[in-house]
């Protein structure tokens, strides 16, 4: 830092410590004072609550004692008055009046009685002394009847204009009640006693209907709907009561007292409810008003004392702290003044201003001084070292610049599209090859969004984190389209938002064109350009799946063998081309035409019936009659054919079954001398199919029960060294006479009846038992699974249990599925195959290459081996297209990290071609014919 930017602190560390400690101590003093005041107030509240409860008990006890004394007075007057009983019997009011006239003054003066009444036996008043309570509505007659009937005194408290206690005592004559005496008095004595006990001003508040009607302006309390019957020190207490009524309801005041400040005095007001004997009468409340000013003043004085003591302690502590810190902080200030010079390289000045500590009892500041001196020496050494390393760094920067130039040159010369994207998907860097492909300069491409550069997305599933590829279509000049496959990866080590993702693109336009050509060749016959057998069967399968109706016409050229023998194969090929052209022109868009092989053609007519098929057959006959091959030597060959017709679904529910029945019909047409076409008999076909199906279902069931299947082993050789460590297990059914039945005779029936799953499980179980015996020799076994078994949800569970039971090594087991079954239900096939691989097994795709649409799925199927369909291998020596397909399959297999196996290897010349194309393994009669697995592996084990 520049010294010009360093200024002296406005507040030194010493004063900061003083300020902070002062704030802390003042805060603690304030908190302690507040806590102490709260404790005093809480103690005072607790004592007041105890005192109020005691006053309430005393008031209630005084009420009870007053009632008891009133009851005793009534009982004495009822029993000790002479001639009262006889006067009641005779209802002589004169005698009754004479009996109490002398007593009445005494009762008024000494007992405070306000009212005396004598009731006859029916409860009716006979005589009365004193005044009744104003506004009363008392059921005296009912009370009298109740007392006379029960011989038990009755007492109650009723409040109207005032509150009075009432007692009725029975007058007994000869043990029977002949009347009752009623006396009542006010609560004057109770009020006086309550004031003496509490030492407070007291008021008697009466609420009720009468109190509201007879409101006295001077003593009314409208907020509480009542009036004050009794009030001490009215001049001072009446305003307090009105203020309390404004603040709190009467019910709340009964539960919790309130405190008011009036004329610099603190007054506490509480209420005690007087329980009345009837809910219809008014209620009375004693209001107690206590002066608590002295207690509150004492609490305030104590609080002030605590606060003053805390402030004095704070001043003393700060003074002591200042005295302690002054000298050490002056040494710290000296050190602080030296450090800026040290930061600027003033090493000599630092050593001059900081003395080396020499005291015996060193403190922390001495340690800082020593450390500053050591730091001075180290910084001086470091400065020299930094200067030296700076020169080395400059040299390294020059070297890195040369490396950068090399990498930029490499990026621009590489024939790969390389670009980087920022975190918003905008392009931030492109290489020269990328500019050439886009036909745009660097400045135009820069800043564009990645998606904006392309016409469409070939594969929309992109997962940057898994580095999966995506295909995008780039449209160049003259609407020329190029396919680019992109690989994206995040630059995880960089935090630069501009260089967020790196994308590498490869131009696969030519490869895509080759794949399209191969896919077309895979479904077409190379000689006639018609559909081949595989594609035709797929067309039939699609029609059957969609529940269409239609017909299949199976044709075969008559005496075609003579053409090849007389004029040679080129002439035969030319005739086949003419026939294919004639058939295609005849059918047009009404159906699908295919060459099945040799001189066999087939036609699929959807939504057609027998009449339509017969019409087409006649048209073909007429067209072929004019189809002639004229050779240069003058020889002429005419084309004719026999046609077999089968209707679906009447004559078959699968492509193989339907074509087989059409083939039967075609041979019947050849046998016929009347016409060249034949429609399969519906009745004969139905009976024959039912008979065959029932027969084979029973044969399969018996074979499963009696273990009548047998496994054959055919070797698969490594073409490089001819070593055999790999065998494919093939299934056969054993007849009672010992002959073996080929699987094509019973497998289609098993697939339709659902027995194929049991057969596959039998094959898996037996194969794993064999593998357990030969796996130590390094032998690997391949087992075929049907397409139906891929839908067996328990397949992987069954396989796992069999692996455990048999003890076989799953890494030496290869499970094969056909290309058709895998592509037909791709999602299920991928899931099942992955489950097998998770168990440790290897997988293979059988009969690969005929359906080249599977190239799209091959990279996504979890298979380890690809078995090339034998039709390509058999014709590889003569057919150039077959060689192209086999070479393409080999290249794709190697590119995807998979092994290729060629089927139907029948001679040494074929092996040489396959080796040249990079095929690793071969299988066929030239390498080894299928033989019994038991004898094959027994011989291997013995060797």
Number of strands: 34
Q: What is the quaternary state of this protein?
A: single chain
For the record, give the distance between the C-alpha atoms at the N and C termini, rounded to a whole number. Answer: 88 Å
Helix content: 40-55%
Apparent shape? elongated
Uncertain regions spanning at least 5 consecutive residues? 1-5, 460-466
- Strand proportion: 15-25%
Strand order of the largest sheet: 25-26-28-29-30-31-32-33
Could you report the average pLDDT, rounded to the nearest whole number? 82
Number of H- or I-type helical stretches? 31
Rg measurement, Å: 60 Å
Biggest sheet, open or closed, and with what strands and sense?
Answer: 8 strands, mixed, barrel
* Class by alpha and beta content: alpha+beta
Explain this structure to me?
There is one protein chain. The strands form 6 sheets. The chain has an 8-stranded mixed β-barrel, surrounded by 5 helices. A 6-stranded antiparallel beta sheet has the order 7-8-6-11-10-9, sandwiched between helices. A 6-stranded antiparallel beta sheet has the order 13-12-17-16-15-14. It is an alpha+beta fold. Mean pLDDT is 82; it is low at 1-5 and 460-466. The longest helix has 68 residues, at 13-80. The protein has 31 helices and 34 strands.
List its traits.
single chain; 943 residues; alpha+beta; eight-stranded mixed barrel; 31 helices; 50% helix
Give a short overview.
This protein has about 950 residues and is of the alpha+beta class.
């Amino acid at each position: 830092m520049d010294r010009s930017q360093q200024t002296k602190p406005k507040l030194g560390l010493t004063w900061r410590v003083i300020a902070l400690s002062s704030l802390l101590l003042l805060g603690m003093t304030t908190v302690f004072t507040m806590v102490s005041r709260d404790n005093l107030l809480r103690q005072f509240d607790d004592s007041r609550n105890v005192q109020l409860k005691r006053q309430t008990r005393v008031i209630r006890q005084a009420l009870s004692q007053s009632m008891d004394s009133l009851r005793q007075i009534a009982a004495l007057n009822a029993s000790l008055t002479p001639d009262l009983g006889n006067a009641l019997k005779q209802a002589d009011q004169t005698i009754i009046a004479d009996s109490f006239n002398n007593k009445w003054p005494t009762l008024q003066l000494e007992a405070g009685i306000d009212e005396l009444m004598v009731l006859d036996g029916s409860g009716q008043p006979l005589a009365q002394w004193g005044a009744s309570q104003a506004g009363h509505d008392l059921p005296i007659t009912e009370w009298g009847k109740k007392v006379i009937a029960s011989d038990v005194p009755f007492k109650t408290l009723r409040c109207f204009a005032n509150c009075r206690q009432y007692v009725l005592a029975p007058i007994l004559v000869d043990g029977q009640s002949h009347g009752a005496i009623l006396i009542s008095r006010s609560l004057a004595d109770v009020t006086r006693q309550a004031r003496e006990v509490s030492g407070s001003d007291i008021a008697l508040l009466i609420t009720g209907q009468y109190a509201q009607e007879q409101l006295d302006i001077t003593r009314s309390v409208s907020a509480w709907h009542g009036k004050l019957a009794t009030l001490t020190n009215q001049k001072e207490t009446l305003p307090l009561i009105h203020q309390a009524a404004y603040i709190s309801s009467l019910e709340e005041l009964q539960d919790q007292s309130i405190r008011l400040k009036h004329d610099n005095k603190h007054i506490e007001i509480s209420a005690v409810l007087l329980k009345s004997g009837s809910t219809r009468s008014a209620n009375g409340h004693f209001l107690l008003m206590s002066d608590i000013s002295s207690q509150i003043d004492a609490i305030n004085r104590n609080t002030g004392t605590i606060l003053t003591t805390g402030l004095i302690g704070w001043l003393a502590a700060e003074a002591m702290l200042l005295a302690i810190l002054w000298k050490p902080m002056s040494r710290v200030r000296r050190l602080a003044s030296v450090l800026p010079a040290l930061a600027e390289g003033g090493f000599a000045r630092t050593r001059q201003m900081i003395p080396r500590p020499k005291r015996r009892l060193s403190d922390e500041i001495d340690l800082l001084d020593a450390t500053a001196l050591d730091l001075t020496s180290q910084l001086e050494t470091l400065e020299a070292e930094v200067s030296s390393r700076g020169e080395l760094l400059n040299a390294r920067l020059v070297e890195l610049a040369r490396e950068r130039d090399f990498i930029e040159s490499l990026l621009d010369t590489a024939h790969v599209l390389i670009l980087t994207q920022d975190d918003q998907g905008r392009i931030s860097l492109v290489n020269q090859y990328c500019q050439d492909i886009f036909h745009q300069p660097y400045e135009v491409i820069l800043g564009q969004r990645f998606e904006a550069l392309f016409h469409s997305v070939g594969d929309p599933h992109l997962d940057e984190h898994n580095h999966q590829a995506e295909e995008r279509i780039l449209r160049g000049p003259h609407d020329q389209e190029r396919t680019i496959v992109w690989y994206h990866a995040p630059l995880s080590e960089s935090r630069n938002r501009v260089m967020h993702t790196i994308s590498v693109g490869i131009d696969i336009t030519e490869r895509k064109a080759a794949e399209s050509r191969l896919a077309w060749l895979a479904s077409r016959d190379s000689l006639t350009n018609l559909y081949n057998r595989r594609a035709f069967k797929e067309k039939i399968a699609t029609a059957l799946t969609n529940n269409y109706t239609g017909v299949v016409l199976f044709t075969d050229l008559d005496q075609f063998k003579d053409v090849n023998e007389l004029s040679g194969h080129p002439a035969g090929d030319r005739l086949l081309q003419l026939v294919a052209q004639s058939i295609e022109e005849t059918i047009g868009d009404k159906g699908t035409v295919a060459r099945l092989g040799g001189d066999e053609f087939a036609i699929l007519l959807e939504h057609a019936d027998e009449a339509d098929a017969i019409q087409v057959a006649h048209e073909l006959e007429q067209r072929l009659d004019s189809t002639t091959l004229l050779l240069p030597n003058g020889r002429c060959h005419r084309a004719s054919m026999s046609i077999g017709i089968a209707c679906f679904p009447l004559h078959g529910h699968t492509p193989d079954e339907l074509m087989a029945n059409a083939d039967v019909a075609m041979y019947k047409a050849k046998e016929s001398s009347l016409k060249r076409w034949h429609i399969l008999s519906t009745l004969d076909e139905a009976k024959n199919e039912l008979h065959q199906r029932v027969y084979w279902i029973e044969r399969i069931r018996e074979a499963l029960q009696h273990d009548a299947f047998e496994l054959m082993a055919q070797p698969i050789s490594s073409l490089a060294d001819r070593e055999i460590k790999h065998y494919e297990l093939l299934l056969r059914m054993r007849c009672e006479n010992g002959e073996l039945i080929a699987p094509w005779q019973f497998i289609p029936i098993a697939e339709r009846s659902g027995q194929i799953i049991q057969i596959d499980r039998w094959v898996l179980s037996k194969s794993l038992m064999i593998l357990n015996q030969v796996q130590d020799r390094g032998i690997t076994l391949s087992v075929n699974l049907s397409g139906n078994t891929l839908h067996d949800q328990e397949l992987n569970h069954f396989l796992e249990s069999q692996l455990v039971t048999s003890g076989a090594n799953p890494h030496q087991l290869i499970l094969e599925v056909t290309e058709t079954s895998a592509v037909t239900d791709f999602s299920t096939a991928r899931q099942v195959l992955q489950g097998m691989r998770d168990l440790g097994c290897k997988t293979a795709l059988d009969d690969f290459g005929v359906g080249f649409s599977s190239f799209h799925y091959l990279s996504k199927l979890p298979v380890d081996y690809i078995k090339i369909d034998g039709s390509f291998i058999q014709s590889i020596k003569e057919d150039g297209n077959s060689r192209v397909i086999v070479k393409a399959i080999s290249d794709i297999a190697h590119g995807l990290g998979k092994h290729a196996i060629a089927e139907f290897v029948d001679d040494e010349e074929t092996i040489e071609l396959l080796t040249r194309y990079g095929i690793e393994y071969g299988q066929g009669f030239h390498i080894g014919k299928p033989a019994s697995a038991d004898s094959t592996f027994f011989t291997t084990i013995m060797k």
